[in-house]
């Protein structure tokens, strides 16, 4: 389980709002000067992460908590966020290249491009809907002892 310390900034019986400092490995990395992540971190600054989660542990403002996500859930989220849109792009492009010439609309690369954009867009819409439906189910919150 990957855990991140956080502090409760607001709470009621049902919901808790927590704030956690974003952490990167940039301070210990030897490639700091040539790394895009390090550059973005310096330019944009480190803003704290704020989340609103169900208050399953009866946390109160000021409490220190641990926000956790299971390793397998993180892997699933990465596959959904990165691999599925890429597959949608590729499959859509292949379908566009295959389907439109058979419909008598010519064998133009634009059909492949249009199919790729459509596949990518449809998968992104599904990913967004899937993310909204699972918004709170993957996080675990517990008191930091």
Structure notes:
The protein is α+β, with helices and mostly antiparallel strands and 145 residues long. It has 2 domains: 1-69, OB fold (Dihydrolipoamide Acetyltransferase, E2P) (Beta Barrel); 71-139. Helix content is 46%, strand content 23%. It has 3 helices and 5 strands, in the order E-E-H-E-E-H-H-E. Strands 3-2-1-4-5 form a 5-stranded antiparallel sheet. Strand 1 (2-11) and strand 2 (15-20) form a beta hairpin. Helix 2 packs antiparallel against helix 3.
Lateral strand order in the biggest sheet: 3-2-1-4-5
Low-confidence stretches: none
Structural category: alpha+beta
Mean pLDDT: 82
Q: Helix count?
A: 3
Number of DSSP E strands: 5
CATH class of the largest domain: Mainly Beta
CATH topology of the largest domain: OB fold (Dihydrolipoamide Acetyltransferase, E2P)
Tell me the fraction of residues in β-strands, as a range: 15-25%
Element string (H = helix, E = strand): EEHEEHHE
Radius of gyration: 21 Å
Give the proportion of residues in helices. 40-55%
- Cα distance, first to last residue? 17 Å
Approximate shape: elongated
Largest sheet: 5 strands, antiparallel
How does CATH name the architecture of the largest domain?
Answer: Beta Barrel
Summed up, the domain count is 2
